[in-house]
Amino acid sequence: MKAVMRRLTIAGVQSFWKCQQSCLRSFSQVQQLPPLKEEEIEEKFVKGNGPGGQSVNKTVNCVHLKHTPTGIVVKCHQSRLLHENRKLARQLLREKLDDFYNGEMSGRNQRKKLLLEKFQRREDKASKLRDMKEQWKNHENGSTMQC
């Protein structure tokens, strides 16, 4: 069995930590939500629907959660298993409550903002490279025509 060796450069490590610090800095701005109280949640289990045939349509594995103070409703039927759907529904409810209470400072919106910034940096870099290639082509064409 061969051992795989990887070389880490100082620049690579520094850029990794720089990225991690910027992500942590932006996510540290997220306001904390109050914990979910089971008394505030109405939970219903209904029969599922969609692809999967008779085994999905007969079993009660779809979860409906309603947060009574805000009126936010979540429906989850991503898995065939009831306990997995309960966990997923609570995660979705937490995300929606985060959006409701924190708005622009919610975790989802901050992740979206980070991805947009990353995409914009890549687009700017690609645009700059295209411009440099175009200038180089123009420079080569201009120098050969002058001879």
UniProtKB/TrEMBL annotation:
Biological source species: Darwinula stevensoni
Keyword Mitochondrion: yes
Gene3D superfamilies given in the database record: 3.30.160.20
Keyword Mitochondrion on entry: yes
Similarity field: Belongs to the prokaryotic/mitochondrial release factor family.
Name of the molecule in the record: Prokaryotic-type class I peptide chain release factors domain-containing protein
Top-level division of the source organism's lineage: Eukaryota
PANTHER family hit by this protein: MITOCHONDRIAL TRANSLATION RELEASE FACTOR IN RESCUE (PTHR46203:SF1), PROBABLE PEPTIDE CHAIN RELEASE FACTOR C12ORF65 (PTHR46203)
